[in-house]
Amino acid sequence: MTLIPPLSAAVTDGYQSGFGNGFATEALPGALPIGRNSPQRCAYGLYAEQLSGTAFTAPRAANRRSWLYRIRPSLAHWGRFRPADTGLWRTAPCAEIALPPAPMRWDPIPLPAEAQSLLDGVRTITTAGDAGAQTGMAAHVYLATASMTDTYFYNADAEMLFVPQQGALRLRTEFGVIDIAPGEIAVIPRGVKFSADLPSGPARGYLCENYAGAFTLPERGPIGANCLANPRDFLTPVAAYEDRDAPSRLVVKWGGALWETELEHSPLDVVAWHGNNAPYKYDLRRFAPVGPLLFDHADPSIFTTLTAPSDTPGTANVDFVIFPDRWAVAEDTFRPPWYHMNIMSEFMGLIYGAYDAKPHGFVPGGFSLHNTMLPHGPDREAFEGASAALLAPHKLAGTMAFMFETRFPQRVTAYAAGIAQNQADYATYGTRLAKRFDPRRP
After folding, report:
1. Which of 95, 109, 266 is nearest to 194 (CA)?
2. What distance separates the 2 farthest-apart alpha carbons in the chain?
3. CA 353/CA 220 separation, integer angstroms
4. Of 32, 75, 327, 356, which residue is least crowded by CB atoms under 10 Å?
5. Active-site residue 297, yes or no?
């Protein structure tokens, strides 16, 4: 593959590095027009097509679009669509069941014994907001035991953030190939076609659908120019195309429903592309955390890796927050997360290791929900252990937890409420916290 030098990117093992750059890449020499986007005749008999991720008139800093030079335009992949089975995939607004206000937690959902592709294995846990109004999100678990053979998909409702927990994914996209494994993430923009393979066997992970504006890097504010997620560590694929004529299936998620049609060829036929509206991957272990160096707590927002803005400044539609390896050094401080109630709702998952505020019952592959304005915090074991701990510098090692945090209340699906992995006793975990007050003991 030949790479046309992008505006400000480097090539790393088949990827271009940098976040939000104007990338440019071609799989055949000369396939990418220079100095014009839509020439009268494209090289190799290709078609020029633009994929816009924002309104045409969005400010330059926020505008996202890419030009694709493909064997057939997307319109040529368009057939007569028929409804497809949505399975356990749900879209906001979704109010299938009314549940009392309480924290919730689940054990890992086991992988099925039967063959099931990623597309068939999406299990919606929560929805929030309204996909049609382009606000809110949905949190899912995916369970896959088979590759998406001769099947392609794109999501017109949402941007998709994949967080693997077990097994690897190979995402073959219109823009190129992305490989991710536990400890990495991938983001597929709204409207980008892809197919998912399982290069190392069955896979399980988490999936966030972001119905609103695209994920971007958070502002660092007083932190300055360095630390947190650095742009150069984000990788975008170089061009790779399929010129393959064979019966295939295209599935589209649009308006909360799945639709399918038959194709006679692969839609992953982009030979060259340039722009900044493209899929990307990121290794979470490259996140450079910051924290309190003497005493007290910083807010967990210092662990924000990606953020999708809302129309309220400073309040995200979705934040993607991680809790990676880090040192705890604060003096005279209760080091785990404090007890709190929050305007944001928090869907949390554990990729590997242990989480310091919940040392028991929250295991890799599991997940929890602490909804808007519901109290939560460390359980009894975590509180008593942290209250008596010797406050020497301590490294939280071999751990990776994350949060999908949104301004909207998250509605639990009937599926998630009814599965055996729902820990029914978790709702009252706080009642085990003992009364410690003694007015005679300052």
Report:
1. 266
2. 87
3. 28
4. 75
5. yes
C-alpha span between 251 and 269 (Å, rounded): 17
How far is the first Cα of the chain from the last one, in angstroms, to the nearest whole number?
A: 71
Quickly list DSSP for 244-283: --S-EEEEEEETTEEEEEEESS-S--EEEEEES---EEEE
Residue from 297, 360, 376, 394 carrying the catalytic annotation: 297
- DSSP β-ladder status, 65-70 and 47-52: antiparallel
pLDDT tens-digit map of 263-290: 999 999 999 999 999 999 999 999 999 9
d(C-alpha 213, C-alpha 165), whole Å = 26
120/262 Cα distance (integer angstroms): 17
Question: What token pair was written down for 26?
Answer: 């071609």
The set of residues, in sequence order, having a beta carbon less than 8 Å from that of 382 and lying 6+ positions away, is: 336, 356, 357, 358, 359
DSSP state at residue 414: H
Would you say 39 and 32 are in contact if contact means Cβ atoms under 8 Å apart?
Answer: no
User: DSSP assignment of 282-307, as one string?
Assistant: EEGGG-B----SSBS---GGGGEEEE
Residue of 335, 425, 401, 408 whose CA lies nearest to 103: 425
Domains, the chain, ordered by start: 289-427 (2.60.120.10)
Phi and psi torsions of 362, nearest 5°: -110, 100
Q: What is the pLDDT of residues 319-359, one digit of tens each?
A: 999 999 999 999 999 888 889 999 999 999 999 999 877 77
**Could you tell me if 410 and 343 are in contact, meaning their C-beta atoms sit under 8 angstroms apart?**
no
